[in-house]
Design brief:
2 domains, alpha-N-acetylgalactosaminide alpha-2,6-sialyltransferase activity, 4 strands, binds 2-acetamido-2-deoxy-beta-D-glucopyranose, globular, single chain
Amino acid sequence: TSDKAKSIISSLKPVAKPTEPDFFGDWYATDDVPSQTNCPNNIRKRVPQTQFAEMFLHNIPVLQWAKHFTPEEYQRLRHYGGAHGWGGVSAEVLNSSLGILNTPANRLMFDDWENSANGSKCIRCAVVGNGGILNGSRKGKEIDEHDYVFRVNGAALKGMFFILFGLRSLTLSFSSSRFLHSRLLKTGARRIYRPSTGAVMLLAAIHTCDQVDAYGFMTPDYRLYSDHYYDKQQHPVHFYANHDMRMEMRLWQELHNAGLMNLFMSK
Ligand SMILES: *[C@@H]1O[C@H](CO)[C@@H](O)[C@H](O)[C@H]1NC(C)=O
Ligand SMILES: *[C@@H]1O[C@H](CO)[C@@H](O)[C@H](O)[C@H]1NC(C)=O
Ligand SMILES: *[C@@H]1O[C@H](CO)[C@@H](O)[C@H](O)[C@H]1NC(C)=O
């Protein structure tokens, strides 16, 4: 666990006594992906000057592909259930699913970049959450002008299954161990705790894009907005037991203030 996460944990009182040692561990596979651009001032180059220098792993694989399935990795990750690991999934199913993603191109989130870049030198990503702040914000055009747009409520998104499957375990445990080590992990709620899908997407984007703009993520003035931008009637933000949205909100503020992403904050 990084010092940062430790300080966050020690600043919060656990709600109940810890019953198990650290749930996820802090061990990850690595992928050495060469940079796809010559972007002069990208996130990776700025990280060392920020308080996130130690937490940020430059070679974390944000997507899983065939290379990551080994008998040793299966033995390790099968102890973690739910979205964090491979518990409850048979080795055969995993091997054949990840086996479909069997070329090194699958480690690249943006394997069409070379063809679609049009001379642009930096990969600019927009990550779009569900927040009510987006209602009437007129941000549509600005969002569409990014090279890649990640949408969180992406039921209709092509390839969403593979993205979520690929993000499973590696990025999710990475997100909670390093960036969102909630106090819930020290309580009985640790079995259901996970970062929100939006948080995992945003952290994945920060680890792969050159620039990230986040829209529709929770801001300190969340009480002014409805829970979701698509709500038919205004209703207050809902906090679920399996997420720690206040902690996520604090992290977005810190990443924004550190200059590692730009968070859309008021209409
Ligand atoms: C995974 O499947 C491939 C065939 O697609 C096979 O060659 C390989 O031995 C399998 N690996 C494991 C660990 O089961
Ligand atoms: C690149 O340029 C072509 C031709 O002008 C255009 O059709 C395409 O949409 C552009 N792609 C991007 C990502 O801007
Ligand atoms: C969305 O914005 C419109 C126009 O400002 C407003 O009438 C409506 O109540 C808003 N919806 C929600 C759920 O906040």
